[in-house]
What does this fold into?
Amino acid sequence: MDRLPGFSYYSGMRRPPRVRATLSVAAVLLAATVSTLGASPDGATIALRLPERVRLSERSNLSTRENGRYTGLFTREVTGHLSRRESVYSGRFFVFEKIRRDAHEVGRLVDHSIASTLAVSATTLFPGDNPYPYLQDFLALPREPVAPGGSWQAPAWILLNPRRSDPPLRLPVTVSYEYQGRETWNGEPAARVEARFATRYPLPHSDDPDAPVVDYSGDIAFVQGSHRVTVMIPDTGAQLAFLRDTVHEQYRFADGSTKEIQGHVLLFLSGGDPAAPRIAEAIGEQLDPDLVPGISVDRTDVGVRLTIEALRFLPDQAVLLPEEGPRLASIAAALEPLRGVRYLVVGHTADVGRPQGEAALSAQRARVIAEELARRGISRDLIDVEGRGATEPVASNETEAGRARNRRVEIYLVEE
It folds into this structure.
């Protein structure tokens, strides 16, 4: 017979506080392992397990129709790598609009990334008002124990951005949940919850001062859709939560055009690798600055970072000078033995007053370094590439010495 989880519930949709660049994640992944789904048979609670690192991956696979005609398959991945700092997780989210890599190129290209913070809440999954993930204030839990088949309702929010070029519409929804009991998922005992909700916009008029408010200035004029979400919450293991959202949305825009989206979105929430200190120490020993100059190794919220300083390229080109070969050979030799990690190669340039050109050049130079690593034994399929232009200087751009320091490439070691 299934053990009954105890849930906590809050009622009433409230206008959320504005939090700049902050993303909150719930302790369904945390509290659920403690006083709810992780309760022992006699009702006593067990210790709360907070992983040192969290990885959140949102993967979309959606077919689209515009003005009644099929226009193709949209795929996107958003991956966040974050580390715990007291009561919050800090790190960065990376967006890949093209998941399938060109066979002739090394590494997937990051379209853009954003620094974010995951604060911990004991009531819901993903509370907050932020760009990622697209489901927020989701999986609010009932106050009393619920037997398999028990159901409840709670408010949540969804971010809709069908054209990607418009500002997202943050829309309130009412979610109906049903606890379906316990089963085995990925070899681990887990609780299963099914959720359903509909999307409707514009919202009906309400005189309630506490009614949700939609502050939207984009081109979406009308939304009608449905979502069916399967949620799995394992008791143990690296996986903390898994959501599969089956989506069907219909849109009409201010210019009269229409769009229909159908498919699914997957959300994976897992604990990261606690071995970062050991990896950083091992790489630091092999890349001693006395032996390999211009290389530093440190730990960041995203992962272990290896910085190659003052890289020498032909001016304004992504052509690496031959004398950089020994440094890259030493780096590849230090990285090649590692297992269970991906490599994010990030290019930076000096600021010369051409933002678009600098962004493109930094990505091209990062791609060159990725090619050099692959040529020296690093798997091509484990490398991602991003260009950040001159947006993150480490020195003044007023001097040649400072500009040289800003022309650098960073290699992040993140969980695969």
Summary: The first helix runs from residue 276 to 286.
